[in-house]
Amino acid sequence: DSNVTISFGCDYAKTSNARCHGKLCEDEISKGTLRLARLIRNPFIPQASNRADQLMPLYYHVQCLINYLRSGSEKKKRINDVEKDFQGFDQLKSRDKERMKKLFQYE
After folding, report:
1. Calpha distance 16→59 (Å, rounded)
2. Which three-class secondary structure state does DSSP give residue 68?
3. What angle do CA 20, 82, 5 make, to 5 degrees?
4. Rounded to an integer, what distance in angstroms lies between the CA atom of residue 76 and that of residue 106?
């Protein structure tokens, strides 16, 4: 399946162009808002490629990613340690780091 989560990422939306991939959402993610991403294999780049951009982000609002993780297959990649599992976690503002730690301690 090309939609399998390889890893996770987090950052602040640079523009308001990205749409949330939440099942019931699909709203835009406003510029400057904390957004989370599931990183999947980029279907537009050959797998044999050595390019660093082989992974493509699917962006989510924070709560929408939590909802995604809580639904569906038990085989889904899970968050075990927010500091290690989210690329870019160390770049977040202190209050967002604390919020993420609280929200994902139950996952």
Report:
1. 12
2. helix
3. 50
4. 15
Higher pLDDT, 2 or 37: 37
pLDDT tens profile 87-98: 999 999 999 999
The answer to whether 103 and 66 are in contact (CB under 8 A) is yes
Residue 32 and residue 18 in contact, taking contact as beta carbons nearer than 8 Å:
no
Strand partners, 11: 35
Closest CA to 13 of 41, 34, 28: 34
- CA–CA separation, 72 and 17 (whole Å): 28
Q: What is the largest CA-CA distance in the chain?
A: 40
Residue 100, burial from CB neighbour count under 10 angstroms (0-12, 13-18, 19+) = buried
